[in-house]
């Protein structure tokens, strides 16, 4: 940006170009004043929610643990299940409850997939909805 000091020839012509420096200075001062005066925005929504005084604390969920040993032996909360019919009877009893307990299936690392798939298929067929496989860290 070059600065025009005056005409090179000695003419007394009026300067047609407008000096932009004061306008830019005023604009920057106004911008800084505007930024400073803006209130800080809070992103929190304050709500007055009703509080239930008679509520009891929630009870922890009931958990049914199914263990599968390396040879295919199935355990139900620490007791050995004799055969598939007994397992399906217990799964049907769990599925019939209005508030189903969580079923945690813990297979051994050495058990065949056929046994685990049989338990999962029986649980699905009988309507058990809260089932999950736990102990996956042994397969890493």
Describe the structure.
The chain is an alpha/beta fold and 140 residues long. The protein has a domain at 63-139: Nucleotidyltransferase, domain 5. Helix content is 31%, strand content 14%. It is built from three helices and five strands. It has helices at residues 21-37, 84-96, 113-126; strands at residues 63-68, 74-76, 79-80, 102-107, 131-133. It has a five-stranded mixed β-sheet with strand order 3-2-1-4-5, covered by helices on one side. Strand 2 and strand 3 form a beta hairpin. Helix 2 (84-96) packs parallel to helix 3. The chain is elongated, with a radius of gyration of 39 Å. The mean pLDDT is 85.
TL;DR?
The protein has 140 residues and is of the alpha/beta class. It is 31% helix and 14% strand. It is built from 3 helices and 5 strands.
| Largest sheet composition | 5 strands, mixed
Overall pLDDT score: 85
What is the total tally of β strands? 5
By CATH reckoning, the class of the domain at 63-139 would read: Alpha Beta
What portion of residues is helical? Answer: 25-40%
The global form is elongated
Show unreliable segments. none
Output the number of helix runs. 3
Rg on CA atoms, Å: 39 Å
Which H/E pattern describes the elements?
A: HEEEHEHE
Structural class by helix and strand composition? alpha/beta
Order of strands across the main sheet: 3-2-1-4-5
- CATH fold name of the domain at 63-139, please? Nucleotidyltransferase, domain 5
